[in-house]
From TrEMBL:
A GO term, aspect molecular function: electron transfer activity
Protein name per the record: Succinate dehydrogenase cytochrome b556 subunit
UniProt keyword annotations, A-Z: Heme, Iron, Membrane, Metal-binding, Transmembrane, Transmembrane helix
Cofactor annotation: heme
Encoding gene (name): sdhC
Residues spanning the membrane: 12-44, 64-83, 104-124
Any single Pfam family the record assigns to this protein: Sdh_cyt
CC terms in the record's Gene Ontology section: plasma membrane
Cofactor binding comment, as recorded: The heme is bound between the two transmembrane subunits.
Database matches in InterPro entries: SQR/QFR_C/D (IPR034804), Succ_DH_cyt_bsu_CS (IPR018495), Succ_DH_cytb556 (IPR014314), SuccDH_FuR_B_TM-su (IPR000701)
Binding-site residues for heme, renumbered to this chain: H80
PROSITE patterns from the UniProt entry: SDH_CYT_1
Length: 125
């Protein structure tokens, strides 16, 4: 029997609940963190290779664009870390997994991330 299901491929018309948005952002932050590790390791290797390259790495770090990128990377790493703790708590059933606890934990993750974004911005600049 062939079921006739409506197909909606327009993602802008689909309503995503807060828990889904938090989960999707958790995956995206993991990808950003994974790919940023290579650039940060390159910068570490550059700073450790010679005193001249150390000064070059210091000049790179003092650049406004690098500070902005570092700020974004620190915030994505924090969001991924807090979101991962949220997922672990729910997977190990430390808290009861319901729609209400999912919404509350998503709000806590997003709220703590917003607070961290402000605090880390003050420390970086």
């Amino acid at each position: 029997m062939k079921k006739q299901r409506p197909i909606n491929l327009n993602l802008s018309t689909i309503y995503f609940p807060l828990t889904a948005v938090t989960s999707i952002l958790h995956r995206i932050s993991g990808i950003i963190t994974f790919f940023s590790i290579g650039a940060l390791l390159w910068l570490l290797g550059l700073s450790l290779s010679s005193p001249t390259n150390f000064l070059h790495a210091c000049a790179i770090i003092d650049n406004f664009y690098f500070k902005f990128i570092a700020w974004v990377l620190v915030n994505t790493l924090f969001f991924h870390f807090i979101g991962g703790i949220r997922h672990l708590i729910m997977d190990f059933e430390i808290i009861r997994t319901t729609v209400d606890t999912g919404n509350i934990s998503s709000k806590l993750v997003l709220g703590s991330t917003i607070l961290f974004v402000i605090v880390s911005g003050v420390f970086i600049w």
